């Protein structure tokens, strides 16, 4: 089945919580399922589940994607707010009960939705945050919308969902100094600048379009050696006529055609001759146009700021479902307790599988010994 999500909270460092969810009683009334893909039959469904491994069945329940190869959409609204001048914290918990193969486990947060049932990939958002994988490409996404454009981080953040079936806690802190910090399972995996690590702003400098490479610029670092000449006795013929061959006595030119001696490898063949390459004394290096100030560059000290946060949601495609999302209240302590149980259950399951495999191997070995004894 699908992934399991325990959605945490949207809050500021000052302690104000704008949204929190533990997926307890009445969660269906707080969330709206998307119908974006309903018409083409690929809209997946959600269910409440603690997952295969849990510490407390009631406390550890989260929402789970229920089918394979489906789109999953679910969103919740809250009173609109702006993060101007505040540290914004987004935190949630996700567990892949099966290797996703291709799909996401991220959350989207953005401005108030006019119709939550239409929530889907085309829906504008402010921030997208969380794990994503398809084939060999796997990363923790952190995408910011800036002036209507969704901008990915220049380099990928580490992917921590490795199909182990245990829960992981994702935490983003967005700060008014235009920096961001990402933690997974309480471990910092990134801290840096929005200006430097995302192409949100136009570059400060650009190549001068008026600057042209000089006609005498030499950009070949190597050249043919003018002193190197092919030796007069250099043999380049790979195949030659076999001079020792004789026309068979019974060869009839009228019936067999004109006889020709066969070709053989030339024992004197030295290969194709090529002139030696040497460093070019006239080489000037790789030419680059000079840099000038970009007239389109406009600095912005409010890259972090969004005027309206009004929804949080999951808009996902999953080849393999069974992903669970869960709560983030009293968060890391609760996650640690659950994580210990999950790891112990996983170890027990892995040990049981290993024991079964060992018994099967031993049984096969005994059968092989019996077959050998009978043959004797």
TrEMBL record:
It is found in: Endoplasmic reticulum lumen. Residues 1-19 form the signal peptide. Keywords: Calcium, Chaperone, Disulfide bond, Endoplasmic reticulum, Lectin, Metal-binding, Repeat, Signal, Zinc. Disulfide bonds join 102-134. PROSITE patterns: CALRETICULIN_2. GO terms for molecular function: calcium ion binding; carbohydrate binding; unfolded protein binding. InterPro entries: Calret/calnex, Calret/calnex_CS, Calreticulin, Calreticulin/calnexin_P_dom_sf, ConA-like_dom_sf. The keyword Chaperone applies. Pfam families: Calreticulin. One of its GO terms (cellular component) is endoplasmic reticulum lumen. One of its GO terms (biological process) is ERAD pathway. Residues 217-226, 364-376 have a biased composition (Acidic residues). Residues 205-231, 341-376 are annotated as: Disordered. Belongs to the calreticulin family. This is Calreticulin. The lineage of its organism: Eukaryota, Sar, Alveolata, Dinophyceae, Suessiales.
């Amino acid at each position: 089945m699908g992934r399991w999500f325990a959605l945490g909270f949207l809050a500021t460092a000052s302690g104000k919580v704008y949204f929190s969810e533990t997926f307890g009683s009445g969660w269906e009334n707080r969330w709206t399922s998307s119908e974006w893909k309903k018409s083409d039959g690929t809209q997946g469904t959600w269910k409440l589940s603690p997952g295969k491994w849990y510490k407390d069945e009631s406390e550890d329940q989260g929402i789970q994607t229920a089918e394979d190869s489906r789109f999953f959409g679910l969103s919740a609204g809250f009173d609109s707010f702006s993060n101007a001048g505040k540290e914004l914290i987004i935190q949630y918990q996700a567990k892949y009960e099966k290797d996703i193969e291709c799909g996401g486990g991220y959350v989207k947060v953005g401005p108030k939705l006019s119709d939550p049932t239409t929530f889907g990939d085309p829906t504008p958002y402010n921030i997208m945050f969380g794990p994503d994988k398809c084939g060999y490409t796997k990363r923790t996404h952190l995408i910011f919308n800036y002036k209507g454009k969704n901008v990915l981080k220049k380099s990928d953040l580490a992917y921590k969902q490795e199909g182990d079936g245990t829960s992981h806690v994702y935490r983003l802190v967005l700060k008014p100094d235009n920096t961001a910090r990402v933690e997974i399972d309480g471990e910092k995996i990134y801290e840096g600048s929005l200006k430097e690590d995302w192409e949100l702003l136009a570059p400060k400098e650009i190549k001068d379009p008026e600057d042209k490479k000089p006609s005498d610029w030499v950009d070949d670092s190597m050249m043919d050696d003018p002193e190197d000449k092919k030796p007069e006795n250099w043999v380049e013929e790979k195949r030659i006529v076999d001079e020792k061959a004789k026309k068979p006595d019974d060869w009839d030119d009228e019936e067999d055609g004109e006889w020709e001696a066969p070709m053989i490898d030339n024992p004197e063949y030295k290969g194709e001759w090529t002139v030696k390459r040497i460093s070019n004394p006239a080489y000037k290096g790789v030419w680059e146009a000079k840099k000038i100030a970009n007239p389109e560059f406009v600095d912005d000290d409010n890259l972090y700021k969004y005027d309206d946060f009004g929804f949080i949601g999951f808009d996902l495609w999953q080849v393999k479902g069974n992903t669970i999302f869960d709560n983030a209240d009293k968060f890391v302590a609760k996650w640690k307790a659950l994580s210990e149980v999950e790891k112990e259950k996983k170890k027990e399951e892995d040990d049981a599988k290993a024991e079964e495999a060992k018994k099967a191997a031993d049984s096969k070995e005994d059968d092989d010994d019996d077959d050998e004894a009978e043959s004797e």
